Amino acid sequence: xxxxxLLYVGMVLISNGIARLYKINDKSIVVMNLxxxxxxxxxxxxAIGYGIVSNQSxxxxxxxxxxxxxxxxxxxxxxNTIFNLDQRLYGWYSLFVAINAVPAAILCFYGYGGNTFxxxxxxxxxxxxxxxxxxxxxxxxxxxxxxxxxxxxxIFTAWIPGFLMxxxxxxK
Length: 172
Fold this sequence. Notes:
This protein has helices at 2-21, 30-53, 58-82, 88-109, 116-136, 144-166. By secondary structure, it is mainly α.
């Protein structure tokens, strides 16, 4: 399941980054944000339901709990863009997720919910979420660097790992 979600997270990060770099209208990225956020929401809710029914351990729910952070990020971005809403609350949500990325990374470094690769990836994602807080709440324009972070992280923290997971070549 994670490989499927990461494949699309990779695409949405890349497309959001490209949109930023080439100053493409925000409404153009809504569709991919809705698709990716919706896919992540549905798959994580299915996993949670499966975990409840099959009486899984708390570690099982870690992946879905943190996966929902992604689902809500992309849905939040899409809905804010569709309705032209104030982005400040999204900025605060981004700070919440960036803060959660730190213990998620540390846990992965110790083998809970992932491995060292996941830990590094979590720290990278935390940086990207932090840019949402910096720009939307602190009102500090970071420019093209955010677009480049999105593209690079989309490729190396989501697309490639997701694809490798789908072909069973991701390190356990």
